[in-house]
Amino acid sequence: MIETPTTAPTSFRAGDSAAWKTALPEYDAADGWSLIYRMILPFGAAAEFSATAGTGGDYAVSLSATATSTWQAGAGTLLSRVERGSGPGLERVTLGQQAVTILPNLATASSFDGRSIAAKGLADARTALAQYMAKGQAHVAEYHISDRVMKFRTTQDILDLIAYYEREVAKERATAALMQGTAPGRVYTRF
């Protein structure tokens, strides 16, 4: 049996269900409080949903796959608040906000690039080096035409960028291996 987490996730997969619970004894539903979450997304409308009240200030959140299916992938913010009453007598307390990542809905995606930013950067830097060398520009760092000055990256600048991204990708792979319970093995990078 899977135990329900006691904190909101830091990432959501669009189109997947999500559930968590939280204890707020100081904002007990028996005293008229309601726990409300607002997901502010990078694109599209914000989504708002209420937690189901239990006893003694316990609340449970359960989002269906349908509820998250329209969430756009990207960085978002999850805001939590409690409210009691309505109209001019409304009491509202913001409990917190946290950065969250909305992952793409892979069940409906027509394409997907699952590489990390570092892995994409490494591939782009290697491509830039190959194109730079293929165009015969490796020896040109700067030139002047009339009053304009054009500067290009040197080959070493691009190699330094490649080395940086190789280290970042190696760190990601080592972290992923540790999270999966396997040894990361030896990690080699160029400097």
Characterize the structure shown:
By secondary structure, this protein is of the alpha+beta class. It has 2 domains: 11-103, Immunoglobulins (Immunoglobulin-like); 117-179. It has 3 helices and 10 strands, in the order E-E-E-E-E-E-H-E-E-H-E-E-H. Strands 1-8-7-3-4 form a 5-stranded mixed sheet, with no helix packed on it. The chain starts with 10 loop residues before the first strand and ends in a 12-residue tail after the last helix. The mean pLDDT is 85.
**Secondary-structure element sequence?**
EEEEEEHEEHEEH
Strand order of the largest sheet: 1-8-7-3-4
What is the strand content?
25-35%
**Measured on Cα atoms, how large is the radius of gyration?**
25 Å
CATH superfamily of the largest domain: Immunoglobulins
Question: Can you tell me the CATH architecture of the largest domain?
Answer: Sandwich
* Sheet with most strands: 5 strands, mixed
In the predicted model, the low-confidence regions spanning at least 5 consecutive residues are: none
Tally of strands = 10
Shape: elongated
Helix content: 10-25%
Number of domains: 2
